[in-house]
Design goal:
mainly alpha, three-stranded mixed sheet, two-stranded antiparallel ribbon, 8% strand, binds zinc ion
Amino acid sequence: MVFIKVSFKAALAAVLVVMVGCSSSPTGRKQFTVLPDSQMNEMGIQSFTEMKKETPASSDAKLREQVQCVADTLIAVLPDKYRNQDWEVVLFNDEQVNAFALPGYKVGVYTGLLKVADNQSQLAAVVGHELAHVIARHGNERVSTQLATSQALALGYQLSGEESPEKIAIFQALGLGAQVGIILPFSRSHESEADLLGLEYMAEAGFDPRESVQLWRNMSAGGESKTPELLSTHPSNSNRIKNLQANLPKNLPIYEALVAQNKEAKCY
Ligand SMILES: [Zn+2]
């Protein structure tokens, strides 16, 4: 049995600390985050362990190598605090059109996503966006909001076994709602922040940032009968593509400079 315990005292202390000081996201947005990063990392690691128990990894060595390369190339341009960590990247063998990144330095990609992401840069668009949710500490904001409205966290979470309310709540907070079937979509401000940061990571890592626009077009075009799981936790709207396009002039030259030096990403 896997338990994550947050004592009521510790949670209360954290709330009090935040009343004194408020944090800011990488884009300068004010944030309400009460949990220590170490606690969020622990939740991410435990959730990842659960997912690995439930879903087998792909045995396709070539695909695994491609996904690992895209993730590693993006991780190399993250802020030092994140870049210098030992990230675990898993390609799950599952038809879901989905991917995620978790506090605690974990990245998960589903084989289903590789049918919608047509090339290395489109895969980088998704992984970069997911990494941005972690670096901007959106999970902490979501948990903190839940903490502020209930004492559920103070009672301790049970992550193993059946889909308990505790497990669902923690998966939701980490943006894994599609996995437990109860969706808490990222807010519009979290989505646009992850898009902007993700676009920067792509360009700096040598992936073509224009492919982010094509990826989200592919995602909403579907072609398949059901909505991609990624869209249920990462709702798209007409503004997403517009905002990405508006930020291309800033990011495209960074990518083009790398191309000119033959330093663009070459994963596949
Ligand atoms: Zn998102």
